[in-house]
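Handoff note, outgoing to incoming analyst
You'll be picking up this chain. Sequence as last confirmed:
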Amino acid sequence: MADTLIHDQMRSPRGSDQTRSLRSTDALVAAGLVAPAMRDAVTAVEARYAVAVTAPMRALIAEHGAPIARQFIPDPAELVTAAHERADPIGDDALSPVPGIVHRYPDRALLKPLLVCPVYCRFCFRREHVGPDGGLLTEAQLNTALDWLRAHPAVREVILTGGDPLLLSPARLGRLLAELAAIPHVDILRIHSRVPVADPGRLDDALAATMDVEKPLFLVVHANHAAEFTADARAALRRVQRLGVPVLGQSVLLAGVNDSAAALEALFRAMLAARVKPYYLHQLDPAPGTARFHVPIERGQALLAELRGRVTGLAWPTYVLDIPGGHGKVPIGPQYLGPDAVADPWGGRHRLAGPKLAGPGASV
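Most recent structure output, in case you need it:
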């Protein structure tokens, strides 16, 4: 039953080696993405964390190398857990009143209908939960989650996440969105997905059409490198945008992937060229085995400060930290305003007359 509810391409063995997702160490070795000498070490990683590399991402790795490969190819360092890392870094589990629901903020809730992804990011903050065996919520569990949302009128926004909601079949996703849109107090729907860049062919006209609902719906696409916005990805996004669905972009600041001003500028410009508004730049969540991706917050602030005045404000995301333990996101971008002066984008300081502009703790 479950397989009929996931998009046909999800687990299908059909297709050539060039079109099939790579889902094991042996497949990665055969494709030349893992050295034979590393087979045993990478197999040990695969035993703990899921592996999947789609054909489009495989092509990008061949063309662009490390910034794409680093995101998806397992590394033995993943089996080393640093002292500050947590299995549930942002406290989802403690804030889950029923299976599939996470309720962190009064006016919105996450709904995770499945825990399967088209690709498995090596830095994922839900890496202890997602994987090919994550599957779907059962019908009973989904009904319980929907009943919970109906019983909480303070919840005005529902965010579909997972796993990746766009791995649901069009029929399944369409029914789910219709159920959510019918809840009177739910004003906004949101879908978070990697599919438009990781496997854009999956976002066909039938799947896009499910997003044509009466309630405002936003699609948030996760991408970390400019190269991910291929012609196929832009075409997939246009299928949604033509329906009037706004598309936002979210990224994670990752060492070796996008931790330079040039890489971030290219990423944000690529988003805008694809009609995607940069929304969030996330500080890395401290999930187990992700330390190799860590960029210090001070470095992230400096990178964004370097871009200020160099790129349009449309390209400017909010740099956020999801405070470990479930305390929510806070903006951590560079600061420009002090008690009686303000810094310009090029580092100049300007004293302003009149009342103090900020409190005694502010800095420029």
